[in-house]
Amino acid sequence: MKIQILGTGCAKCIKLTENAEKAAKEEGVSYEIEKVTDINKIMEFGVMFTPGIAIDGEVKSVGKVLSVEDIKKML
Amino acid sequence: MLEEKDICCSGNTNSLVLGCAGGSNVGQIANRVMIELDKKGIGRAYCLAGIGANLSGFVESAKAANVILVDGCPVGCGKKIFENHSITPARYIVITELGIEKNHNFDSVEAEVEVALQKIL
User: Fold this and answer.
1) A49: domain range?
2) What ipTM was reported for this prediction?
3) Interfacial residues of B (vs A; Cβ cutoff 8 Å)
């Protein structure tokens, strides 16, 4: 499973990354996390607000720091 | 062009403006109104087609925003696209409801955009 965190590296992006990693570990899924920090690449997702999270290429949330439990439901 | 200052914990507005851009005068007026509202800083112009195409980044961004949606006519393609994704715009504008008649004459679009903006703003 590929998890992409879309954001330029602010505190919220870092928190979302931490939550995503924790969710994946607790669910026991095989995963890789990519931090997408380049604005042009973020725009290619059509995302206008960050942080965003995409799972296997599909954007699941924009502009929010999802909780660990929220992310677990998406995995 | 999205810039870093516009996103990511910036605290800036999360308002988006979308226009239908259909193949009639009012469709093109809707598109131009979207651009003018962007220029005035009321909301950032955004891509209705991306939502219609069910592209996840566009759909989720619209859900996260306060959206001004501008349709050209009562067919309401933009509104129906939003309904398909259970998105409710903060403000909904239909150009024909501003007293501009739908036709296929694009020569008067510039003047009609001004009329529309005067009634919207």
Assistant:
1) 2-72
2) 0.93
3) 2-4, 7-9, 14, 16, 44, 46-47, 50, 55-61, 63-65
